[in-house]
C-alpha cells in the first residue's frame, strides 16, 4: 500500500506524502484525478486504508502519543453508539473511527477535530473520497487554539473541500447525536485557570492534572454531545481509579448520571502500547441510575505478540451492553449506592468478580499419593541402612565412628515413623 500510494502521488519518500496530499486536496481538479486513480487500484472504502501506512511512517508517538485504533476496537466503539444523523470524532487522526461510523450511517454529517499537521491531509483525503458531508477542525482540542477549518460538502461523486475562516467555531455550540473518541493516552498538557470559565469544564470545578489530559479530552467530547446522544471513548484503565482532580471529575460524572457503561478490554491490542484499555459509554439524559460493567479483558484471539478482538468477542460485548444484565464473571449492573460505598472508584474488579478457585483434588487420590510416597521413603531408608552396615566393617576408626552416628540417626528416624503410623491408626 505505502509504495503504490507514494508512486500514485509522485513522491519518493513517505515524509513527503502529507505536504503533497495537502496541496492536491486544495485543487479540485487534481483531487478528482487522484481519487479516480486511487479507486482504480483500490475500490474498497469500507476501512481506513492509511492506518497501517500512517502509524508506521507518520505517527508521532513520543510527543503526541499517536497510536491508531485497531479494527476490532473501532468496531466496538462504533457499534455501541448505534445509528446517528451526526457524529463527532475528537482526535480523529486519519479518520478510522469516522469511516466506521460512515459505513453504518452514510447520510449522517460528520465533525472531526485533529491536531496533527501530518494527519490532516490524510483525514481530508479519507472524507472527501467517500463524499462525506462535514467539518474538519484543525487545532488543539485542549487549548482551543485554531489552525484552520475545512468544510466538506457532498458532490456528485466526491466531497468538495473549502477552507473557511470561522474563528471560534468550537464555541458555536456544535452538538452531535454521537461522539466517538480515541484520544492520546495520559498526554501532558498545560491547564490554565481561565479554562474553568469554559462551559466544557466549569461545572467540574477542577481541571485534569498537568501530567494526564485524559479527562480533559473526555469533557471536550462530552461538550459536543447532544442531550439525547451517546458517546464512546477509549481510555487507559487509570481513569477509573486515579485520585485527586481526576477523582473529583469522576465523582461529578457519576453524580450527573452521565456514565452508562464501563467496558474493560484486553491488553496488547495496540501497535505501540501493551496497556489494557477501557471503553466508557456516556449519555446525558439517562433515566436509569445504574452503570453496566463488562470485563472483556480475557476474551481475545492471540497473535504473535499482539491480541485482537474477534467478531464473536465483539458480538458478546455489544449484546451484553444492549441486554444490560449481569453475567457471572463477565458483567455486572452496579447501583449508585455501591459507588458511594467504594468512594466513586470505578475499578472493574471491584464490581465484576472473575476469580477462578483452584480445582479441589479428590481426597482419595491425595491419601493414595501420600501412602505411596511414605512407602518409597521407607524403602530408601532400608537400603541406606544396609549400605551403612556394609561400610562400617571396612572403614577406619574415625570413619566408622561417623558411620555409627549416621546409622543411629536412621534407626531413630525409622522408629519415629513407626510410632507416627501407630498414632494415626489410633
TrEMBL record:
<keyword id="KW-0489">Methyltransferase</keyword>
<dbReference type="GO" id="GO:0009307">
    <property type="term" value="P:DNA restriction-modification system"/>
</dbReference>
<keyword id="KW-0680">Restriction system</keyword>
<dbReference type="InterPro" id="IPR003356">
    <property type="entry name" value="DNA_methylase_A-5"/>
</dbReference>
<keyword id="KW-0949">S-adenosyl-L-methionine</keyword>
<dbReference type="GO" id="GO:0003677">
    <property type="term" value="F:DNA binding"/>
</dbReference>
<dbReference type="GO" id="GO:0032259">
    <property type="term" value="P:methylation"/>
</dbReference>
<dbReference type="InterPro" id="IPR051537">
    <property type="entry name" value="DNA_Adenine_Mtase"/>
</dbReference>
<feature type="domain" description="DNA methylase adenine-specific">
    <location>
        <begin position="52"/>
        <end position="356"/>
    </location>
</feature>
<keyword id="KW-0808">Transferase</keyword>
<dbReference type="InterPro" id="IPR029063">
    <property type="entry name" value="SAM-dependent_MTases_sf"/>
</dbReference>
<protein>
    <recommendedName>
        <fullName>site-specific DNA-methyltransferase (adenine-specific)</fullName>
        <ecNumber>2.1.1.72</ecNumber>
    </recommendedName>
</protein>
<dbReference type="GO" id="GO:0008170">
    <property type="term" value="F:N-methyltransferase activity"/>
</dbReference>
<dbReference type="Pfam" id="PF02384">
    <property type="entry name" value="N6_Mtase"/>
</dbReference>
<dbReference type="GO" id="GO:0009007">
    <property type="term" value="F:site-specific DNA-methyltransferase (adenine-specific) activity"/>
</dbReference>
